[in-house]
């Protein structure tokens, strides 16, 4: 097996789960000379190892779970399969590739095989309603939102201690750790441990989340929950289920192109031999699917896939007037060593490829340090920053802070098209209200790339900026700029800020936004 140090950001196939089905799938993918990685937060074969005796696995006479696990891993080492101890938190299907997020990093693959075992857990009362509104399962994804703030960390396994420690030590959060398991706790001194306190329910009141315990009630800014296994329904939207099992056909295909499933997660009987066979079928189907994708996966993929480039070119062919993209960044030869911009390269590559798709897109790259006077004049305080405007517009008021990726790319594309066509797409009443503004208005929307409700709010505030020279509207990636999220005490996205004041949560319409501006 390959070590974590040898991991890549992309594979032909990614396998979720290091049980019999997952390791069988990985070996069969590797046997077809395709790159593959296995992700599991727990030790490989963790459940199988508990079996004192296995009498019915072919070729092994009355073996133990430990012996069978060791034999599997020895076999796996021959194929040099990358095995990563990372907990998968989210899978996003795409036209050409699939994106996978873990508690440590982000990856892409042409196909994904789900083999997490059967999910037997149950959520806490109120948990499902608060996901994305103060409840999170991923410190790597959302931890920065709670830097320096109070959080509760509910852990069903010892492995959660590492993430709780990261919140306390790396992000300065005040962590109250609630272990739902027995054993010694290895946590930093600043983490407050509350043993034997099983939560009854969670609920939200105002900007705080309440954790109801048997003898007290915690009031915190956010709650992180760590479980040994995560329900596949929370990993990827659109999966079909039959009871608690993932619905698949004979080829182990789910209803989502490129995503396959095998093992206990797809149904009974819960037998090792059955799981191994399904893992092989899923592997062969995944390899066949990966091969069918034209061109395969490049070692260094473009920021925009070839299929998306073709689609975008057709859309951008409808541009009418030129659109100016002013991008403030950290250029490769910049002397800005004390303020490293970790997202600047990704954002610059995305903008460069996008601008190359139409002659009516004018991209201007500015270095934040070398062009600091221009940055101050434009009011740009952080990078990467992308300002959209029309030709000749000196102070663009439609701004994206961070990488306009994920769901936000749709809002970015809509803004470009609206600017080019001069379309406002606002009611006459709203336009009249905006024309009456006499004081500057600053709108900020804090978002995350995986928030499906964020683009609608971003589009709306940007249309307000298009309609009135008094309005400046920013999209701000909350995880890229944790200091902004902390300033506004963000615990859910999208969060709207009007002239420095956080707006009350709730649905946002033209009328409601106009009302909030009037109050601001």
Structure description:
It contains 15 helices and 25 strands. The chain is an alpha/beta fold and 520 residues long. The strands form five sheets. Strands 19-18-20-21-23-22-24-25 form an eight-stranded mixed beta sheet, covered by helices on one side. Strands 1, 2, 3, 4, 5, 6 and 17 form a seven-stranded mixed beta sheet that branches.
List the helices and strands and how they pair.
Layout (H helix, E strand, L loop, with lengths): L9 E7 L3 H12 L4 E4 L25 H13 L4 E3 L3 E5 L5 E5 L3 E9 L12 H4 L4 E2 L2 H4 L7 E6 L4 H12 L2 E6 L12 E2 L7 E5 L2 E5 L4 E4 L1 E5 L5 H4 L5 E2 L2 E2 L12 E3 L10 H21 L13 H11 L6 E7 L14 H12 L5 E7 L4 H7 L6 E6 L7 E4 L6 H14 L6 H8 L5 E7 L6 H14 L3 E7 L4 H6 L7 E4 L2 E2 L7 H10 L1
Parallel strand pairs: 1-2, 1-6, 2-3, 6-17, 7-14, 8-9, 8-14, 9-10, 18-19, 21-23, 22-23
Antiparallel strand pairs: 4-5, 5-6, 11-12, 12-13, 15-16, 18-20, 20-21, 22-24, 24-25
